[in-house]
Amino acid sequence: MLIPLGFTFLVPFLWLLSTSLKRNGQVFIVPVQWIPYDPQWNNFVEIFRLVPLAGIIRNTAIVSFLGTAGSVFSSLLVGYSLARLRWPGRSVVFVALLGTMMLPGVVTLIPLFVLYSRIGWLNTLYPLFVPSWFGGSFYIFLMRQYMMGLPIELDEAARIDGAASFRILWQVIGPLCGPVIAAVAIFSFLAHYNDFMGPLIFLSSEDKFTLPLGIYWIMGRWGTQWHLVMAASVVSTMPVLFLFTVAQRYFIRGVVLSGLAGR
What we know:
By secondary structure, the chain is mostly helical. It has two domains: 1-43, no CATH class; 53-227 and 236-257, MetI-like (MetI-like fold). Helix content is 69%, strand content 0%. The chain has helices at residues 2-19, 42-50, 53-84, 90-100, 109-118, 126-129, 137-148, 153-160, 165-176, 178-193, 197-202, 211-221, 226-257. The longest helix has 32 residues, at 53-84.
């Protein structure tokens, strides 16, 4: 039953790939020509020639990798503190953290815009990845839930041997958190890679655009040349497909063991 259902989800991507290899006049031919009789591989070269797509990809890579690194680092530290250390008010802080998950991002958009404008970060990439280094509630929740399932005897044995909290995290708990780190990394990478609202609000120069905003800009310039738009879309889709294919096993295991899938 899932195979035909999965195929229906695959159809739009197949149409995207097919359209990227057509001439502009062949895009809306009825019936749909799924396999172009004269594939235009030059469309992928043309899109790099007409727009600064290489620079857009570079900006996206910077934002995605630095944002992902910040999310993993901050959630690992805060999750360890909430799950393994005992300090006054820990439960209250965790409840407050869960409360921030219910706050829509659009609510904080105007205050963030005012803040970034005053510190001179508008039209830079900083607003797109620096906040990740200060923690994200969803990623911290995942990390904390996973660490809660690890035996506390690991910490006690390490402390008996003279290890401090940071050493326990980096040498004992951290290496055991591979699945949830992979899950957080994939979630964060996709969030930064697909972010459209942030670049739309904070960026104004074409040389600073990321892929979602860059493709929207390409559509604005050549809205009728759908074969070029689809070629750019295929280029932007490839890294995500590669990442999920490579890390799928760790991603699913991290989601299951962290309790997100229900325990």
